[in-house]
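Q: Hi! Curious about what Amino acid transporter transmembrane domain-containing protein looks like structurally. Here's the sequence.
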Amino acid sequence: MLLGNGNMCKSKNPAESDSSDCLPNHHHHHHHQLVVTVGSETSRVHAALNLHEEEAAMPPWPSSSNSCFHQNKNNNVENKKVCSKCDRDHDHDHDQNNNSISNGIQDMKSVEINNNNDHKDHVVVEVEHAVNNANSSFAHAVINMVGMLIGLGQLATPYALQTGGWASVFLLIGLGIICSYTSHLLGQCLSRNSKLMNYTDLGHLSFGTKGRILTTSFIYLEIFMSLVSYTISLHDNLTTIFSTSHLNHLNNFFLSNCLSTSQLLTVIAVLVALPSLWLRDLSSISFLSSGGILMSVVIFVTVACTAVFGGVEVNKEVAVLRLGNIPAISGLYIFSFGGHIVFPDLYREMRDPSKFTKVSIVSFSLVTALYTTLAFMGAKMFGPEVNPQITLSMPRNLIFTKIALWATVLTPMSKYALEFAPFAMQLERNLSKYCSMKSRTRLIIRGCVGSCLLLVILTLALSVPYFEHVLSLTGSLVSVAICVIFPCTFYTKVFWTQISKPMLILNVTLVLLGCFLGAFGTISSFKLLVRNLHRAHLR
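A: Let's find out. The predicted structure is below.
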């Protein structure tokens, strides 16, 4: 075993490494990244954290299986690789060769990550922790992926099925199959290069800096529009929970002349969630991520219980097909399968990444079955009267309804801090890089910016309270690109010299289909949104 100059080699196979893969350790000090995983929902949003252009060119934080030291030219020990996770001094004297192994063992105990050269704040991360991150089993990966996919989409699937006709379920199933295939493509791209750690890295690999900027913009836009949709859902369900007498009493207490009682309730709920944006340590709210998954399960169970035990007749008629409504509902269906920005994180956390395709197939099959069941239950129970959010159509007197409504209200309030985390961390990173200021000052700026963004989201949600149209617009404008267009494009670009003609034709077809659904869905959703705003203005 030998320890030499401290050059870090990223490839396990010596034949795969080149001069660009081995960099002196002193280049590595300022490019370590700290990824805090506090649950599946946080995994979804921390995919947007690594946005520096130079990170694609620099090696990622080395793992225990692919970091090695090369032989020092003066070292007479046998040329073998020693895996480690440490920073070594660049120059070693000949007299230190005998102590190199023991020094390497001591250095493996911790890694110091410096966030700012001008500040002493640092985090010590044990190497064992990084190694243990890749310990997700097959079942665990399936649970995580299912938890990431289920969200707001399940509320709207009954409305989408009723609006588009029962034959539109084939569009739902088809999009589930397509998204499962594109997740497989992402896994293939990730297996090509171990340096790829997140979705934006795939964009950079395929199209350079422009690709990274484009994917980053779409990720942030999806997070922003999703939070607007969550806030609209919060507004609608809060209004249903509280009776008219409660609302009137609240309105008289606050003497609000500018806001309606339902809007005032939403403002209060958002203000209650606002302090969570000031938290720097996401581990203190890690329970919220699992809570969001639990709420999604509760909503499905309560709808099923309403159909079975609620005394509601499941015999309403559903049209076969309403072709003119397909562009509008396609965005709702696509949004329901949005989760691809997190799949690189899931891939890297798996103990056996070769099973990622099987994980995708099982997960999308389960989610598609759940969406299909929920869509038919809601459409058959309520027919044309079904609300864009299924919880608002359930009978008010049932305990199942109250549980579902509260679950729908608590879910958005748990999302704000977790969804805001990528932007907040990037903001603080930029402040550390370009400005010399204290940690408390950065925290204050971060909290103020987050609060302002949340108020903007609140204003938009109250100004455009049309859940189905905003959600459909998000799916058609953003999700279709992230879930369909980008993965096919990434794979085609990365494997251009190896891709078979049938797969090339398939990928090009899916890109064209995604562009078609995205364009017509965006136009249709935008027109409906403008039409509803115009009607509201005339009242």
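A: A fun detail: Residues 1-46, 48-132 have pLDDT under 50 and may be disordered.
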